[in-house]
Fold Pyroglutamyl-peptidase I.
Amino acid sequence: MGSEKKPTIIITGFGPFGEHSVNASWVAVQNLKRRDLLPHLDVHIQEIPVDYQEVSQIVPNLWKEKNPQLVVHVGVSGMANKITVEQRGNNTGYERLDVKGQRPKKKCCINDGEECILSGIDMSQVCDEINKAENELEAEVSHDAGRYLCDFSFYTSLSIDRSRSAFIHVPPLGQPYSEDQLGDGLAIAVSAMLKQLTDQKSS
């Protein structure tokens, strides 16, 4: 049993942008890895710049190189005060400029792609796991990931494999959760997602 291969998971966070000179998403992802909160998994973490061109290259490369069982993108939302789990990604409407002052050509993620793609993971079940855990964390499901780099990265992964792609928005640090709490929340969410995928395989 000791030599059994651990499932490979990719978790990404974003670099600084706008008023988020410290991006809570990357802090939370690093916290999860540093504290080894998912010891039963082979966790690869990656910081992604808030840059459309970079995301469109980095995300597919991660899928190709690691062949992961699950990819979870994490981003910060200044409007969130709970852990917010996204159910779908959108292809069009990318008007906002990235950190390099660019936006995608045709303001879309993938030319002639589906307008929106639903993740095969039931995010309401993921929220239930976070909400019933013995901590102060609260989670909710969202159906609009915001038409910026968060949504863009999520849709990119969904277009590669919608059954194994997820996105989580976290609030800024201290509003209201600490770095450790955010790390804990991500660990619960990832475990819940992986359990769903394992249950689907065995059913």
